[in-house]
Amino acid sequence: MGANSSSISELPENEYLQKLSGSEPISENDPFWNQLLSFSFTTPTNSADLKLLEEATISVCKSLVEKNPRTGNLGSLIKVFLSRTKELKISAECQNHLFIWQAHNALFIICCLLKVFISRMSEEELQLHFTYEEKAGPSSYGTECEDLIEELLCCLIQLIVEIPLFLPYTSRLVKTLLYNFIRQERSPPPGTHAFQQQTDGGGLLYGIASGVATGLWTVFTLGGVGSKASAQLEQCSPLASQSLLLLLVLANLTDAPDTPNPYRQAIMSFKNTQDNTAFSSSNPHAFQINFNSLYTALCEQQKSDQATLLLYMLLHQNSNVRTYVLARTDIENLVLPILEILYHVEERNSHHVYMALIILLILTEDDGFNRSIHEVILKNITWYAERVLTEISLGSLLILVVIRTIQYNMTRTRDKYLHTNCLAALANMSAQFRSLHQYAAQRIISLFSLLSKKHNKVLEQATQSLRGSLGSNDSPLPDYAQDLNVIEEVIRMMLEIINSCLTNSLHHNPNLVYALLYKRDLFEQFRTHPSFQDIMQNIDLVISFFSSRLEQAGAELSVERVLEIIKQGAVALPKDRLRKFPELKFKYVEEEQPEEFFIPYVWSLVYNSAVALYWNPRDIQLFTMDSG
């Protein structure tokens, strides 16, 4: 590095890097820094290039780790960067590109060095490297370390949010990161610099913003994990990607003993820019953001795990966002990408599927949502391959996708947690089912048929196992009782969902009654079963009532004629003959220690998706390499 262009292969022999990592202390006022920082180096934009860079400079980094206790050159470099940043705003206004360029280069070198330092030493050892200075005495070590680390942190945050005061940092940082995600600004081509000042308040300098976000990774978290870099996100907006990942990391930091996570508090409390109600004086983290822009960005970015996780956090934790989303008249723009995630369950990691499913569960807690989705008519859902859907309601499509997820889970993953949340979402919607598409109605009954067959199979296995055990005491019996109990719980839930629809909206769903009559034999075995007798009363009554009317109408009836008789019968059926059951309502509640799920998940996203970050996979301990 230095005044001339540098390539990765030349770095180990670079005279300026050798001097930085050498045995001689370099004063922060030495002209050397101007020479070191005046390099034209194509900053790596993906993890593969970062890996090559790290391998090429490892000897330099090792030398600095060894000699920094005597030279204090790391601290001098950081102080040079801090002094340059104090003039950055003036430089941007004067279009002093050289000064901005050198500040960018200094931050890049600091980031690379700290990343290696972090991977090779404990937090305590790293703190000591901030204290080493040629003239510093032992008594000043602790204060010197804390002051330099704090000043670096404050500087990095200030570069992003452009504010001089410390108290509003948390909320302003969260706001800025959210706006970076919302704007999805495209990056310049690799190897170019964009040192123009932004005019919309989105950060001091676009050219160093992504570097600042990367620096914040390193300093805020003292390490973490690295990246395989999503090519799609790199091509779109590295700044938006880094900002979102940093926001997720900060929001999922664990609470201090007496202080809740301030970043999570900021996410929980921000409001719409159109909201004129006063902020609570007891909430220092409150701010406003444009909800329409946020909603649009969330709808457009749901193909990524991190955008889905952000949507989950906002719906679950921020009541202002949840209320706004549920009031949107274009809710299909948000729901369709979520359904597409679930539809392609085979291609998604399990965490992404869970988040998408929980989002649906949260939305279905609202009766207004459950009504409105059946009023939204969709045309030609091209990604749904099992059947051509030229016209279907959003509600019917949601039912189809959730049922497909249940069936996939039954045959593949067999995850009880997934089953429970799928069924809970269907149950929440069941009283509001309206004008179900004939295919959706068929799939509801087909799922029950699949469960019935599974029940019979497990029951037969249990019977055979019991008979075989009478003549042998050699091996323990398989736990068929537990399997049977689980499958009966699921069957019970499906019967409750069907019953809820029949008792609350039978006259709105002739296709479901048709499907029920077509497969009426399925339900015969459960009429006298002690676990289902009560819930079967209404279903049995509906089957008997409509079967009688069809018999009176004669044989060889067309589908259209059967549906006509069902519609007429729905009006004639006395509602008081159907027994009332408690309304089916399920509410999502996080586990007692959600950090055990979310912290490894978030860091796996950083490892897999962060732009221009590389970490050795052999060093990863927080999560398994296949969890992302």
Automatic annotation (TrEMBL):
Q: Does the entry feature the keyword Lipoprotein, yes or no? A: yes
Which superkingdom is the protein from?
Answer: Eukaryota
Q: Which GO terms describe its cellular component?
A: Golgi apparatus
**Keyword Metal-binding recorded:** no
GO BP annotations of the record are: Golgi organization
**Which keywords does this chain's UniProt record carry?**
Lipoprotein, Myristate
Q: Which family does it belong to?
A: Belongs to the dymeclin family.
By its UniProt entry, which PANTHER family does this protein fall under? DYMECLIN
Under what name is this protein listed?
Dymeclin
State the species of origin: Corvus moneduloides
